[in-house]
Amino acid sequence: MHSVIVVAHPNPHSLTHAIAQRIAQSITASDSRHSAQIADLIAEGFDPRFNLADHGLFLKQSAPPADVAAEQERLDRADALVIVYPIYWWSFPAVLKGWIDRVFAQGWAYEEMSNGKLVKKLGHLQVHLVAIGGADEGTYMRHGYTPAMKAQIDHEIFDYCGANVRSSCLLLPSDGHYAEAHLHTAHRIGASIFAPQEPATAGQTCA
Questions:
Q1: CA 201 to CA 46: how far, in whole Å?
Q2: 174 vs 20, higher pLDDT
Q3: Contact 155, 144 (CB under 8 A)
Q4: 191 C-beta neighbours (distance < 10 Å), count
């Protein structure tokens, strides 16, 4: 089985990239038949700006732009999507939000029918979310950031398209000795992705 690991961080030596690499290594180590591809949005130069061509696609008036079609084809080949990202202002970095805006387009991820019915098209795709933040878990819970992120990202994006969010982890905080613990968690996440049972961390905060 094949997984695509999308990572959004400008520094290739960051903890975010290290966690993505550890997840990829754990996926392939768990079974020789499993594969993992890391999609580094910044290194690949993905343009996150929603443009006129994207708007035409949303209105069902044009085909996907070439870069969007390439990303959709990459995900069509995947059984699992893993998104690893640093938390900026309690959400995705801009490049990752733009990737979602452009790639998870009408006609591919979902379709709004003329009778008002919503057709969810990504039921085949399992999703694993791994967010790395600087504040501690108490801060996120005290201010309601954790449930807000889960509502905005897990439900409003992926559930809207029918994708199954099998695990959703906040790795907090990200400084000092916590980094090594997060790498161990990343290993467990990777090993669980194609395991027959549900991951132990599904739907929970992973600290």
A1: 30
A2: 20
A3: no
A4: 17
